[in-house]
Design a protein that fits this description.
- With 344 residues, the chain is mainly beta.
- The protein has two domains: 6-29 and 117-343, Sandwich (Jelly Rolls); 30-112, no CATH class.
- Helices cover 2% and strands 31% of the residues.
- Strands 1, 4, 5, 7, 11 and 17 form a six-stranded antiparallel sheet that branches.
- A hairpin with a 2-residue loop joins strand 12 (287-289) and strand 13.
- Residues 1-108 have low confidence and may be disordered.
């Protein structure tokens, strides 16, 4: 049985990283634009044109269009009016969508998004609470939710995280934010009906973190699987392949999909009751980066991944004493996760 990693869906994860946040800011991924130039004045008797005011950018907003200078009035054989001065260029924001074209001269485009490795920039979490979903206000779907982390208090900081989901191709899982581990108001819930290939998976996309000051990771979980177990992986820059379309981005693993494997903790029990799971970095089975073993220590964490499997049995179409093949038993799966924290 082959499970899928979070970065097998890297395109989806990057797209989600620019998701709209309700109750917090959006992930930093786009550039603001310059303001537009003011229009020039028309010919007139000594008439002048007013200067167009330059647009500015604020946070993620595009630069506003500079207003055109007022037209000069026409005089008898008058001299041409002077041309209005151009609006000052808006400053480039650190985040924001590309600016729209104004009525005057076209504004400059937004800053180019630099393609870079997953951990080209890193956040060192100041607070052990990583993801508790308590700033969710119910106005966006779970796949559009994101929140800040790394600051002194939960849901603050300069890096961002959110959740995503993937299936086995036989059925599409549902991802939702609903009542979490008491007394929490919110937690992430993933479910699928009658999966039949291997199961389902999901995870947390996030800005790269250096959590090496902590001893491991913990979270609360409940649900059901075909085996009564699930697995939990820590994605790292060194265990992820480079970006498929631009090798300047993505991970740094020099191997293949078969030799780039995240550190993983398998066979974690899951029941219908909320249970706290604590995994020390040393408890993870080392990952691989090509031919090199990768032992996690909390540094260069680029994502978290869970897999919820189906049960397998001998294919009923073959003799009972056959060595195989084994096939999945179709079934319903559920996993709820809340209060993800680093262990101090």
């Amino acid at each position: 049985m082959k499970m899928r990693s979070r970065f097998a869906l890297e395109a989806l994860v990057v797209a989600l990283s620019i998701a709209t946040v309700v109750g917090c800011a959006s992930p930093s991924s786009k550039g603001g634009t310059a303001g537009q130039s003011g229009g020039g004045g028309t010919t007139g008797s000594g008439g002048t044109t007013a200067s167009g005011a330059g647009g500015t950018t604020t946070g993620s907003s595009a630069g506003t269009t500079g207003s055109s200078g007022a037209a000069g009035t026409t005089g008898s054989s008058g001299a041409a009016g002077t041309t209005g001065s151009s609006g000052a260029a808006g400053t480039t924001g650190t985040t924001g969508v590309a600016g729209t074209t104004g009525g005057g001269a076209a504004g400059a485009g937004g800053a180019t998004v630099v393609v870079q490795k997953l951990c080209a920039t890193k956040t060192t979490p100041m607070n052990p609470v990583f993801l508790n979903f308590e700033n969710y206000d119910g106005t966006v779907t779970a796949d559009k939710y994101s929140t800040a982390f790394g600051g002194a208090t939960p849901n603050t900081g300069t890096a961002y995280a959110g959740v995503y989901s993937f299936g086995d191709g036989s059925a599409t899982p549902t991802l939702a934010l609903m009542a979490g581990h008491p007394p929490s108001n919110w937690g992430v819930s993933q479910s699928v009906t009658q999966a039949s290939a291997w199961g389902m998976g999901g995870g947390v996309w996030m800005g790269c973190a250096d959590a090496s000051a902590y001893r491991g990771i913990s979270f609360w979980v409940r649900g059901s699987s075909g085996t009564g177990m699930f697995s939990f992986d820590v994605s790292m820059e060194s265990t992820q392949l480079p970006n498929a379309t631009n090798s300047a981005g993505g991970g740094t693993c020099p191997g293949t999909a078969d030799t780039c494997k995240d550190p993983s903790k398998a066979n974690i029990p899951i029941t219908a009751d909320w249970t706290q799971v604590q995994i020390l970095w040393a408890d993870f089975t080392p990952g691989t980066s090509g031919t090199t073993s990768v032992v996690p220590n909390g540094n260069n964490i680029a994502g978290l991944v869970w897999n919820v499997p189906l049960q397998y049995h001998l294919d009923p179409t073959v003799p009972a004493d056959a060595a195989g093949p084994y096939v999945a038993i179709p079934g319903n799966l559920l996993i709820d996760i809340d209060d993800v924290s680093f262990i101090q």
